[in-house]
Amino acid sequence: MEVRIGELRLTEKYEHIDAVYATGVSQSGMIREADFSKATELAMSELIRLAKSVGANAVINVKFTTSYAVFSAGVNQAHVLAYGDAVKIIKT
Questions:
Q1: pLDDT digit string (tens) for 38-67?
Q2: Which InterPro entries does UniProt cross-reference here (predicted)?
Q3: Which among 18, 39, 82, 84 has the fewest CB atoms less than 10 Å away?
């Protein structure tokens, strides 16, 4: 599946199928820190899986929001929300 990030308009014809969103979370522990890269990777993988499940072959207009949660005992979480439009590019 093709993932296009930040495009507002495709040059190819496409059919809009649905809006999709996914989250990714990375949590710190005794040895590792919360990692935004890992959380982003998890969110993108889930976004692609969800888009495929509705018959899309691309996700366009992808946007991200992030947050960082701090808990007691040194536990932190990096949260990433990814969302966009699942579309089916029509091959001509």
A1: 999 999 999 999 999 999 988 988 999 999
A2: UPF0145_dom_sf (IPR035439), UPF0145_YbjQ-like (IPR002765)
A3: 18
